[in-house]
Amino acid sequence: MGQTHIRALAPSSTVEIVAAAEPHEVAAAMLRGLGLRVHSTVSDMLDAGNLDGVLVAAPTDQHLALVEVIASASLPILCEKPCGLSSVQAHAALDIARRHGVLLQVGYWRRFVPALQDLKERIAAGGVGTPYLTMCAQWDHTPPAPQFRRHSGGIFVDMGVHEIDEIRWLTGQEVAQASASAFPNVEDQEAVGDVDSAQAMLTLSGGTAAFISLGRFQPEGDLVATELFGSSDHARVNVIQPADGERPQLEALRRQAEAFARCATGGPFEGASIEDAEVALSVAERLSRAAGLKILGREA
Questions:
Q1: What is the pLDDT of residues 32-87, one digit of tens each?
Q2: CA distance readout (Å), 158 to 86, 153, 155, 198, 238
Q3: Maximum pairwise Cα distance, the chain
Q4: Quick one: DSSP state of residue 187?
Q5: How many C-beta atoms surround the C-beta of residue 21 within 10 A?
Q6: Which of 15, 81, 84, 170 is deepest in the core (most CB within 10 A)?
Q7: Statement: the pTM of the whole predicted model exceeds 0.70
Q8: How far apart are CA 88 and CA 189, in angstroms?
Q9: Mean pLDDT over residues 217-231, rounded?
Q10: In which domain, by residue range, is 92 found?
């Protein structure tokens, strides 16, 4: 994910990645080839200075410890979602940020997709009438490595938090009721404890129903889509389609980082807060329990 952010920010005129912490030499050599100052530890990178903020793109089970180290250096933080393996960890990150008085934004990049921003405004203005149902799907081309999956929190924590945050942000409603199911078989037997697909049905605080569909195998390529049915209109946003590749995500990640930079230099807060991340993880935990799934990596 760190390499994805590097590609996303390459064309930015306002945000520049100047240094990285990478303990693995193969990846470190690649980063040095891009002209970055590369350090073997985050502490070394922070000690070297000349940083205005830090982007955390490490595995999920390292998020909380990294937030603590970076906040102690009084630097603003843009942390990849979900900012911890559990709502308890996200709340601990919130306490850390408050204690050190630093900005902590969480990387829910869907909030920076222009078509979704337009849909949010239409919903708020009553342009779809009464919103009856919203459906969000995320189906990846291929799953991540088994080692990552075993420490990712599982499919609702790793993937579903995106849909949970998007639904709350789009509708302005909270999750009142939740049920879920998971497909029982796993193609890669090394992905111990994880599943390849899961679905969830939510009832929101304003009465709107929401459906979430998640999958780790989409042979044609990554697919992310949102659909909404209202009393006076219907809307569909193809956030990512196989033919698009990663372009829509890269553009949203760039816009997210630029918004983070504006906020870090005195502008308004525009992204997902750590409070939003805590709620998303809390709902993901509810869905995991409802589907009979374990939160993977919590013991790590």
A1: 999 999 999 999 999 999 999 999 999 999 999 999 999 999 999 999 999 999 99
A2: 11, 6, 5, 12, 21
A3: 57
A4: S
A5: 23
A6: 84
A7: yes
A8: 30
A9: 97
A10: 2-109
